[in-house]
Write a structure and sequence with these properties.
Layout (H helix, E strand, L loop, with lengths): L10 H4 L12 H23 L1 H8 L5 H17 L1 H15 L1 H21 L3 H4 L2 H31 L5 H5 L1 H23 L2 H6 L4 H18 L16 H7 L1 H30 L5 H29 L1 H25 L3 H28 L6 H31 L4 H19 L11
Amino acid sequence: MNSEALVAGGPAAMAPGRPVATARIPTSVIVATVAGNALEFYDFVAYAFFAVYIGKTFFPASTPLGSLLLSLAVFGVGFVARPIGGIVIGAFADRAGRRAALLLTIALITIGTLGLALTPSFASIGLAAPIIVVICRLIQGLALGGEIGPSAAFLIEAAPADQRGIYGSWILASQGIGILIAGFLGLGLSATLSSAEMLAWGWRVPFVVGILLLPVALYLRRNMPETLHTEAVEQADTGMAGLARHRGIIVLAVLIVIGGTVSTYLGNYMTTYAIATLKMAPVNAMGATVIVGLSTLVFAVMGGWMCDRYGRRPVMLWPRVAAAVLTVPCFLFLVAHPTPSTLFLVSGFLAALTAISGAASLVAIPELLPRGIRATGMAIAYAVGVALFGGTTQFIITWLIGATHNPVSPAWYVAGASVITALAMLALPETKGRALQN
């Protein structure tokens, strides 16, 4: 059965766990994918938003900067597991189906989040506390490493051929939803709790909320249809042989992921940057998170719509070029005028550029891969790019600020990564209107 020759509405086609061949799938199915992805990303990045408090709770050091650096180093530990999750869960998705893999990632993220929410402080149980946190970060990394590939494959395969951009854009838009939820929670907590209360227990609240919401995503995913049609898969395009045949696309994809990753995790760091470097009140700093989440949500969907209309390559390329040119001036403006309004303006603008470009990129890459390695190839490219640069970005920019005493130094890092990514985008073929490979 060819996923492009779609039969809509039949009960067998839409039965949970059965291969689906649709011209348009129900909104509830899209919500299942988006909800799970949003919550997994929410749980993962909530750590970054509350890194200052987590550092003091689990990683005491002689200076606040040292404690923050230790906390961010453990944030990076979660990225070490991403390539492993990408390979293992991606291969599982290409063999057993997208639905089964997405159920597995929800289960893993639940375990990791539960551990973070309930682990006592270093003062209570000593060295066991940071060890448990590291294990939880590794489990979360496995889950997120295996999430993007199956999600992207599912949405691309389920979408009508002329709407793959808008469907696929929800991969990134769902991350904006996760950031937005975490930002609103952080904003509310910062406005109502004292610094002592935030340190004592307030930072745990977002993780508890995540635990309460995860069963909803699990329930929704249990009722998802399946888009992997094993009878249509070309055997030459499966497993290691298939990955080797398409290694050029996967390498380009890694380079494309780099620019968006560095920009994304700089955006996620803006709350910490505003508190630690710009010396803003936490309630104002958390507002930047809300703006980044909202901007990512809105402009990712816009990017998906634009790449359906104008093509994948121009939509992903030009915003990335703009990021390379404009990030440094934006940071110079922010440092010269460190007010909440300029923080929100700069954070929202840079997030918009990243979202438009990233949405088109996350559509183009799986479109270039055959069905038998679509989830694995996408997962590997995304996980490797994010592991190498997402896990280190916040540590590097914190170190750069401390070493250079220049608060604009993070912007140069983003600009350099954006140049590399723009060159890779130029080499990627256009996929608008191209039939998916079996």
